Amino acid sequence: MKSTAVEEFSRVAAQSFLKEPETVMPVRILLVDDHPVVRQGLRTLLEGRPGWEVVGEASDGVEALEKIEGLQPDVVVLDVTMPRMNGLEACRLLQRNQKSAPEVLFVTQHDSPQMMREALDAGARGYVVKSNAARDLLEAVEAVSQHRVFTALTRGPQASG
Amino acid sequence: MKLRILLADDHEIVRRGLCALLQRHEGWEVCGEASDGREAIEMAKRLKPDVVIVDIGMPHLNGLDTTRQLLQHDPNFKVIVLTITDSDQVIREALDAGARGFVLKSDAARDLVSAVEALQSKRMFFTPRVNDLVLAGFLEKGHAISRNEPPNLPTLTVREREVTQLLAEGKSSKEVATLLNLSTKTVETHRSNIMRKLSLHSIRDLVVYAIKNNIIQIQMPPQIRSSSPETSVV
To answer: Which of A83, A115, B109, B195 has the fewest CB atoms nearer than 10 Å to its CB?
Structure first.
């Protein structure tokens, strides 16, 4: 009996040791920011992650809504302050009009709890401050792609399920 | 021999974007990255880059004062100023500070490579808006950008401008002293001199002065239901 348990343990251990690495979860991302240089910086960070793909870019809220419809991304990385239509408005419209809206992660210069609340109220799943994007972005995209909330002001990240 | 570029911007994400943009150009390398003006000056002195690209709205020391101090140290530095605004006053100050290039951040993906190429060929590069302003000033007054001069404001020393920015960012005299390697008493003296020279009576007045004179910049959030505009360095 004892040896059976040991054998079983060894079998399970060997299986877990030999098992293939976990499948990479593909994430299709749309970048929305009015500054091409910021989009380039975000893209450089995100494309370093295996399985993640930046499927498109938009420079304001109107263009973002058009591209979301066509590209059907999993995650939209959205700036707040943009010409024509700001990110908050785009996010509200997205939640209202799309049945299966992608998850929205705000990446913004506004390091303010009020703005963060406003963003979450608009339907966003995540909020990251631009000055800390290099630190928080990957973790935030991963969280929101799994439908978890991720918020981080300059004090530091807070992720929840 | 590669052209060596020093980048100064407080946002790492912007630096990454700029790096990607510049390093696509054969023969150029980003030799250093700084996240504020003070660090930029220290790195520029040490690395002696061929071109320095500075963002205007950096904490601790803004891009205009960084440009002034760099050129005071060595007039051969070639500086390109990156800005989110092309107001007359900012353009005037950038030219006055000695920048050889002036690029709007929103157009950086298009203009920055051209600006660096221009400086590499010992030319200058300014956005079309600057050219218009210089030309208008030249045609109307016979010398560049002479209209809408600010009223004769008392001149602050380099150190006083540094102290003004740090106080306007909300730092205490003690914090300013630590950042500038001064005693708290010296900072207090600078503070009194600044207030006296500018006829200011409170830190609130000082913040308003710093905003009006592009020492710090403000970002207006889009319509938010429950708050007033916030002040931040961008």
So the answer is: A83
Residue of B nearest to A111 (CA): B232
For residues B62 and B43, give the distance between their C-alpha atoms in angstroms, rounded to a whole number. 15
**A110/B225 touch (CB, cutoff 8 Å), yes or no:** no
Measure in Å the smallest separation between the Cα of A13 and chain B Cα atoms. Answer: 42
Tens digit of pLDDT for each residue in A5-44? 556 655 555 555 555 445 678 899 999 999 999 999 999 9
ipTM of the complex: 0.74
Residue boundaries of the structural domains of chain B: 3-141, 150-234
> How far is the alpha carbon of A127 from chain B, nearest alpha carbon, in Å?
15
CATH number for A24-160: choose from 3.90.550.10, 3.40.50.2300, 3.40.710.10, 3.30.70.890: 3.40.50.2300
pLDDT number for residue A152: 87
Contact between residue B13 and residue A130 where contact means Cβ atoms under 8 Å apart: yes
Choose, out of A37, A45, A115, A117, the residue to mutate when testing the contact with B (most B CBs < 10 Å). Answer: A37
Which amino acid would we find at residue B161? R
How much is the pLDDT for B231?
A: 38
Paired residues of B8 in beta bridges: B34, B54
Q: Write out chain A residues lying below 8 Å of B225, CB-based.
A: 118
Residues of chain A with pLDDT under 50: 1-2, 20-21, 161
User: Can you give the pLDDT at residue B222?
Assistant: 64
Q: Does pTM surpass 0.80?
A: no
Determine the Cα–Cα distance for residues B16 and B1; give it in Å rounded to an integer.
23
pLDDT < 50: residue spans in chain B: 144-149, 151, 225-234
Q: Which residue out of B13, B80, B85, B230 would a mutagenesis test of the A interface target, given it has the greatest number of A Cβ atoms within 10 Å?
A: B13
Name the residue ranges covered by the structural domains of chain A. 24-160
- The CATH code belonging to domain B3-141 is 3.40.50.2300
* Residues in B 76-135 with any Cβ partner in A closer than 8 A: 105-106, 108-110, 112
CA dist list (Å): B210 to A43, A122, B163, B233: 35, 34, 11, 11
β-strand pairing of A103-108 with A126-129: parallel
